[in-house]
């Protein structure tokens, strides 16, 4: 095994979703004989059931490979496979910080997509050498020459080498491996300097505590050594060091340029922060590594356990998941209708959906998740500015001067034939047109400014539906702008249900309230009494529907006799229903909270 720093190459594979990253990673693992014939399967590095089911990468995965060139050279490759969906771009940025180069994969049929451009920008910001791969050349619809022309238009890629591959049948992969040796520089660093290691990920193990994944920038780390985390000056003793091949494998030490893991009895999972620097406790480094910028969640929703006894399990599960995914934020809250739960922040709707599924599958907790919302800035009349991510936290109307909401720059890359339908959809969501450019005669790139709140509800699904699955989108938050917003409260059986309240534009409030009330009528189960469902703005009711009562036929036993006997029984039933309505509690099912998402 080579040990010289000159023989190490660290690189990430980046691409838009479904352009073949994981399949290329599979072929590289096979070609370098990292996995045996018996271990072969599709998506080797995607070890989560969710990843395999959805066909997407959710977590970055690191793996060490040994590559032998035709002229007898031996190289260590540290490969990091990254997610492609916009919601997981933070995972990509962390992986790129641990590398010197990147393989940018582009589909030969679909060409340059929205997320491709975003990934290029991230790679260039990290000063990485980029190798371009036009993948899926085996498809009948592949057009590599058109894709080459698109690539030439991307600033910063003019001099990058381009390789044609088919990850499915293995064509071109050998040439890519030789290009990694030639074009990606070896790590810079010194084994004689004090230890500096960047934590780029971590997982929790109930026996070993936190297992931190790190990239060694300077120095060496081995078992028995005393180390220190530089953010909080806590000292630990290293118990194990290792690499990924692709499973965890112990090694005697990790030195400059290595990507691996270590355990050191990190029992308190809140103390191993992603982006922190680990150094030698006896001869510490004076400087911390740059680390990562803190990401701010943009989508918030509340999660409550169906069974109140699961509250502590949910807290424990969120702690462990936030160690593995540092983009999640959470804080405890309570609701009169749903009991105790947590207000959680995410980087997008897919991110929220994935975390909810992981909580339910990995920790067996049944959850009720409320409607997602964004962060609003509320300017009060006394000049104070407060940020709220929960509609129930909105202050009284008479104290508010104005409200600002986050605006995004939305980029949609799509076939030209769907341009009209997509533009109509975005303009209906309060989009402001900024730019339209044609990438070639069949494809266009559309840029709009619009409120983040408008893409919360079924927007991604509608884009995919209109474009028959061919459009791709990427967005970034630009700024906050004042908008005429109002809060709509939902009342079920005269009680306000905080978790069904929402904030929206005044022009859309009445229509959305009416549709939501109609939706709720179909999902709230019938009781033994009438259940009114109302929507109100301030103190004014703007929409109403009623879930009709279940009726018992009390006249069934009355066959004949005076009408007064029947009337007496009906009056008695009426009085009972009145009393029941006072003490009766309406159970609100999970579908009620999700019905807000299904408003067309």
What is the gist of this entry?
This protein has 600 residues and is an alpha+beta fold.
Walk me through what this model shows.
By secondary structure, this protein is an alpha+beta fold. The chain has five domains: about 5-185, Rossmann fold; about 195-280, Translation factors (Elongation Factor Tu (Ef-tu), domain 3), CATH 2.40.30.10; about 300-370, Elongation Factor G (Translational Gtpase), domain 3 (Alpha-Beta Plaits, 2-Layer Sandwich); about 375-485, Alpha-Beta Plaits (2-Layer Sandwich); about 485-600, Alpha-Beta Plaits, CATH 3.30.70. It is built from 13 helices and 29 strands. It has an eight-stranded antiparallel β-sheet with strand order 10-9-14-7-8-13-11-12, covered by helices on one side. Strands 2-3-1-4-5-6 form a six-stranded mixed β-sheet, sandwiched between helices. Strand 25 (about 485-490) and strand 26 (about 495) form a beta hairpin. It starts with 7 loop residues before the first strand and ends in a 6-residue tail after the last helix. Residues about 45 have low confidence and may be disordered.
Uncertain runs are: 43-47
Mean pLDDT: 82
The separation of the N and C termini measures 60 Å
Whole-number count of domains: 5
Question: Rg to the nearest angstrom?
Answer: 29 Å
Give the helix proportion (percent range): 10-25%
| Total number of beta strands | 29
CATH topology of the largest domain: Rossmann fold
CATH architectural type of the largest domain: 3-Layer(aba) Sandwich
Q: Please report which band the strand proportion falls in: under 5%, 5-15%, 15-25%, 25-35%, 35-45% or over 45%.
A: 25-35%
Write down the CATH class of the largest domain.
Answer: Alpha Beta
> Helices and strands: which structural class?
alpha+beta
Give the CA-based shape: globular
| Contiguous helical run count | 13
Sheet with most strands: strand arrangement? 10-9-14-7-8-13-11-12
